[in-house]
Design brief:
The chain is mainly beta and 109 residues long. The protein has one domain: Hypothetical Protein Aq_1857, Chain: A (Sandwich). The protein contains 2 helices and 9 strands. It has helices at residues 7-18, 68-71; strands at 3-5, 26-33, 39-46, 54-59, 62-67, 77-84, 87-93, 99-100, 107-108. Strand 2 (26-33) and strand 3 (39-46) form a beta hairpin. It is globular, with a radius of gyration of 14 Å.
Length: 109
């Protein structure tokens, strides 16, 4: 599968989604230009899935939308949720990445 979510990531996304004041169709993950190394990840909830430009993945009832342009940079990527001494957040492990910046918020291919 081109993208996967760990159990912790699925649980956290579902928890956050259930706390939203309005309903969403799923989670959108994108690769966007920017950051120290050239690309960064963007995650957010989306109300719609576009059959022509998106690919949809489903993880235990959680729908994840990735546009086709982003998908080519994410083949084999895993999304995890970490909660440690340095803070909490979603972490991407991407075999397509050839490097990342010092803060870990952007990557290069």
């Amino acid at each position: 599968m081109p993208i996967s979510l760990t159990e912790k990531a699925k649980e956290k996304v579902k928890e956050i989604m259930s706390e939203q004041p309005e309903p969403f169709a799923g989670l959108r993950i994108q690769v966007v230009g920017g950051g120290c190394s050239g690309f960064s990840y963007r995650m957010g909830f989306d109300k719609a899935f576009n059959e022509q430009s998106d690919t949809m993945f489903e993880f235990d009832g959680l729908k994840v939308f990735v546009d086709k342009a982003s998908l080519m940079y994410m083949d084999g990527a895993e999304v995890d949720y970490v909660d440690g001494l340095h803070g909490a957040g979603f972490k991407f492990s991407n075999p397509q990445s050839s490097g990342s910046c010092g803060c870990g918020s952007s990557f290069s291919v």
